[in-house]
Structures are given as structure tokens and as C-alpha cells.
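QA checklist item 7 of 12: single-chain prediction sanity check.
[x] sequence parsed
[x] length recorded as 203
[x] structure emitted
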Amino acid sequence: MKRRTFTQSQIRYLRDRAEEQYENMRGSRSYRNVSFLLYIAIVVLAALTIRSFIAEPIRVEGDSMIPTLIHNEDMLVEKMSYWLDDPQRGDIVICIYPGYTESCVKRVIGLPGETVEIRGGVFYIDGESLDESPYWNGEIIGDMSLVTVAARHVFVVGDNRNGSKDSRNASVGSLSYASVFGRVVAVVYPFQEFRSIPRVNYP
């Protein structure tokens, strides 16, 4: 069989078409790579935005909130409520103590302008005893002299009243609203322990 030969113009044409096809394929792969990286960036940005401004899971460390929260449980903390509203009595909040870099979980019991004291193993708010039976049935060890909660501050304590470092401690004191950045709304892990954490409404 006679071997086919190509003219110089045909060879140039075929070479140009091959280079054009290669460039098209390379551009297509680059486009897919860029699209994939952009997708990953959007997903990561969305996740960071949700964790920073909307909600995130945080692990309980320690026993200061027993029996409400147990060591190594994962809480779901929502952060939007306090954009428009102030922390309320009965909220379990995530907060940062003065001089601390790690967050703590505590319950709000005292609000701005109120007086808080402990007498005979019981908290008194503005002279009225606080009914804490939904989460605490023991007696608080030690009294605390009357203190007044400053404006835009809250008085926070652990539900494990005799095993918590909180606003009763002089190094902590009442916390500013800026130190409170989320409200615990549920326990989400372990899955078999899933439960909502509602705000306590005091009588």
C-alpha cells in the first residue's frame, strides 16, 4: 500500500488544530479546578460564618454545670439572640471571664441593677429568695455579701453551686454583655443524650 504523504500546508493545519484542541482541553481543566477551589472556599467561608455569628457546637469541660450539663457533652450554642436582646435570667450562656482566653458555660441569675446575695444557703435577688428547684436542690455552702450588678452586666453561676468558679469570685464578678456571646439551646452529643435546654422561667 502506498504511504500517504502530506503537504507542508496540511501539516501546519493539523498541527494548529492539535494545539488549539490541547489549549481548549487545558483551559477546561483549569476552569474546573478553579471552580472546585472556589466551591471549597465558599463552603469554608459559610461554615466559618455560621460558627462565628449563628451557632456552633461547644464541648462541656468540667463539672461546674452538673446536673444540667455533663463533662464531655457537646452543646449547641446559638449566637443570634443577643444581637437584638439582652441575656435573661435563667439563660445558660457561653462567656469569657476577665483575663481568660477560653470560654466558660454558666447560668445567668442576676440582671443589671439588681442586688444579689447568699444567706442561709440560698440566693436572694433584690431581697427575694430565688427558686432554683428546676436544676438545684442542695444548699449553697458559705454566704455572700450583697452586691449590685452593674449596668449592662449579668451575674452568672454554675448549676453545681458548690463546685463552680463564677461571679461569686472576686476575680470574676459580674460579666459585661460583651463577655457573653452565646446561649446554650441543646445537648447534641452523645446522640442518645440529645435534649433541648430551655430558659428557666422563675416563679
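[x] summary fact logged: The longest helix spans residues 8-54.
[ ] second reviewer sign-off
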